[in-house]
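Bumping my old thread because nobody answered last time. Still need a sequence for this structure:
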């Protein structure tokens, strides 16, 4: 009986045209000796982000938003901290998330995201981040929004101890 219910759940997922919204958040501390990678772009800076993969907080937040919208769990469920994923590019993982959504019958409508980062300044890198993410998800650029904000010296972000990102998405 459980198998039958599971197949009904999967069928209703793929046959539904009702828009679904997802939300994702990620936070990583800075760490010396690593490259700073945001949105698949290596940003010149004295520190990178600590993490098992490349620690790309922006892409991690986007992946969690997409997976959440489809009720498929989170990135830890699909990409655990095993040697297979050590230092892997988050753009590669984002491509795998796209395939998971496609397998379930979902199409990505749009993504809106915000990086919370005090330093370095990243506005000049946002167009390339947007292109990387759009290309990985096979979306037009106008369906991927990336913004950045500072915390004006407040909290761990303001003390330049780490970076946070959040993302929302809509899928059908």
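Sorry it took so long. Here it is:
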């Amino acid at each position: 009986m459980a198998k039958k219910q599971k197949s009904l759940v999967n069928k209703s997922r793929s046959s539904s045209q009702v828009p679904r919204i997802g939300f994702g958040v990620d936070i990583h501390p800075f760490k010396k000796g690593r490259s700073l990678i945001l949105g698949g772009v290596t940003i010149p800076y004295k520190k990178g982000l600590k993490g098992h993969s490349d620690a790309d907080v922006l892409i991690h937040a986007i992946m969690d938003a997409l997976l959440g919208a489809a009720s498929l769990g989170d990135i830890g469920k699909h990409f655990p901290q095993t040697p297979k994923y050590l230092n892997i590019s988050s753009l590669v993982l984002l491509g795998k998330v796209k395939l998971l959504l496609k397998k379930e019958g979902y199409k990505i409508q749009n993504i809106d995201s915000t990086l919370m980062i005090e330093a370095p300044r990243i506005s000049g890198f946002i167009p390339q981040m947007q292109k990387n993410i759009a290309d990985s998800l096979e979306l037009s650029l106008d369906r991927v929004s990336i913004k950045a904000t500072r915390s004006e010296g407040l909290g761990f972000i303001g003390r330049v101890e780490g970076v946070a990102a959040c993302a929302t998405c809509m899928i059908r």
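The chain has six helices and seven strands. Let me know if any region looks off to you.
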